[in-house]
Amino acid sequence: MRDDSPEPLLGLADKRVLIVDDEEALREVLGLSVADLGYVVRTAADGREALDGFADFQPDIVLTDIKMPVMDGIELLRRIKDRAPDVEVVMISGHGDMELAIRSLQYEALDFLTKPVRDELLVNALKRAGEKIDMRRQLREHTQNLERIVKEKSARLVELERQLAVGQAVEGLSTAMKDLAASCDDGPGYFNALPCFLAIHNRYLEIVTVNQLSKDRLGDLTGKNSWEAYAGRSGSGNACPVWKTIETGKPQRGRESLRGADGREIPVIVHTAPILSKDGAVELVLELSVDISEVKRLQEELRAAREKFQRLFDAVPATIAVVDRDFCLIEANRRFRQDFGPERAHQCFALFAHGDSPCQRCPVARTFEDGASHEDETVVTTREGRQRNVLIQTAPIHDEAGAIEQVMEIATDITQIRQLQDHLASLGLMLGSMSHGVKGLLTSLDGGVFKVDLGLSRGDEAKLREGWAIVRDKISRIRKMVLDILYYAKSRETHREPVDAAVFARDLAEAVEPKAAARRVGFALTVADDAGLADLDEAAMHSALVNFLENAVDACAEADQQAGPAPGGRTVRLAVGQADGRLVFEVADDGIGMDRDTREKMFTLFFSSKGSRGTGLGLFISNQIVRQHGGDIEVDSAPGAGTRIRVRLPRGHDAAREAS
Question: N or C: which end of the chain has fewer CB within 10 A?
Fold first, then answer.
């Protein structure tokens, strides 16, 4: 790995960029361009060389080609994310390729650029990476500040509790107090040095002596009645602590008010202990009173600090939760309670993802394991069923022994940012890769045309049918691909006209039934007599419903595959009717079904439960088409129990008028 680092510009000196490409000329050009922007630059000729020097250079951003010898860019991306998830990676390719783009985004690449790399696209990609890195740093600093405030206030509260606990030790000091009382005649000694009100009373409820603090604050009460020191008590038998100790022979503890020399009342905690004679009778009573005015002031200050902290906690425009080692919710701010509910003791993965076990790559679990802060980007579901892209960051909370007791989890809503980035990035990817996808389909189409020509020339009807089936299939796939790209690329106005629902349903069946039969899945169509007409963009709605039907066929086929060597017997059902004046299409299957997390994310861009076999575009676009028609979609599914999807569409004014 060669270091091409120029002097960095002010403000970008802490941003390190690693450029990986097997073309030396391109490395040099990109290196000069990025260095001119003020970044520290290093280059590598392949993925292996990049990883060998990764720990030494510690880059913030990696620009990597996809097609390289030794180790390609996809594998390099995967290893970088495993080793350093915070590093942002921008993929570069010589040609747009849909599959490579989707794999890059699934491995959390930030962006995808095609060669030759345009300067403005490179600048924008680096700018987005820098903004994301800076946002992580700000969140980390914010988390550390919150943790410091919690520690400071907790330490203050512990100190106050320790101060109050000191008085409880008095009850076990009766024997030592005899020596203390005896020392009163010998001078100040320990008696006057103690920072509390001390007095010794005799069995006749008379004050024998007091310490210097009592004289200064309460006046010299020596020789007066025991109850005269208290505010609101008069006469013997008034149940003052000293009288109770003489009557019961037992120590007393409680809150009282002493009367100060200036007439003001002083709140105190009083402890009394009997000093016994040799025959076991109460001879003297030691009275110790602690002024709690300062404690009250500190408690009030602590209460105000807690309220201020709670207001700060609730004012943060992100969801904050504190969870224990069982992933149970201990505390949450207002934003979290609004989005996910106030339920304490519930596990975070049940509230975030409605799952039964911790999420994969859970940053909370990783923080409990290594004690470091972690972050992850994921999709969560609010209690109202809305999906949000969030950036989650965690920080450990330690107990007094230094062990990790809890973890603070901060989730920042980045849905709008992610939607904009995904739309801009994927729009360019799809348009760039459209020719590549169509080229493959046209090649297959040429094969079908060749078989048609061969069947015509030879009069071979079987060959003619075989070729025509290929032609129809490839034309259908090209049509679907183009429609998907058009609907995603821009907001397209629907061109609606009255459509006979029964005829439309039979067209759907003709499109899907052969594919179902090829996979040994049954197909059943039911059309109600009152299906009637509806204003539809027929081509768009046909594409949307075919997506649902083909997914149902795939679900049944996968269930058959899991069942064993003798598949068959599963059926996809399409029912068309009306309810509450709306046209209803119901697609039902007895396939593998979906869990709650999959149901809630099924219409999310690029989400696919099919792995590399799915692009994550079909259901996203189907949902868009239904929404554009003013309709809605209801999904009912469970693992092993199949799936039922109901698409409800308004009939429209023209269709309602013709139907009447």
Answer: C
* Across 42-71, average pLDDT: 91
Residue 140's SS3 state is: helix
Check if the beta carbon of residue 237 is closer than 8 Å to that of residue 243.
yes
Smallest CA-to-CA distance from 20 within 4, 37, 7, 8 is with 4
Tokens matching residue 475: 């034309």
Least Cα distance to 540 among 585, 479, 594 occurs for: 479
C-alpha closest to that of 73 among 113, 39, 42: 113
**547: Cβ contacts below 8 Å, ≥ 6 apart:** 618, 619, 621, 622
This prediction has a pTM of 0.38
Residue pointed to by tokens 């994550």:
616
Residue 564 in 3-state DSSP?
coil
Question: Buried b / exposed e across 572-611, counting CB within 10 Å, b at 16+?
Answer: bbbbbbbeeebbbbbbbbbbbbbeebebbbbbbbebbbee
For 590-642, where are the E strands, in sequence order? Answer: 632-637
Q: CA of 440: how far to CAs of 51, 115, 436, 474, in Å?
A: 35, 22, 7, 10
Element containing residue 278 per DSSP (H, E): none
3-class state of residue 570 by DSSP: coil
Distance CA 559, CA 545 (A): 21
Average pLDDT taken over every residue of the chain: 79
Q: Which residues of 363-386 are buried (b: 16+ CB within 10 A; e: fewer)?
A: bbbbbbeeeebbbbebbbbbeeee
Phi, psi of 646 (to 5 degrees): -115, 120
- CA–CA dist 353, 538 (Å, integer): 36
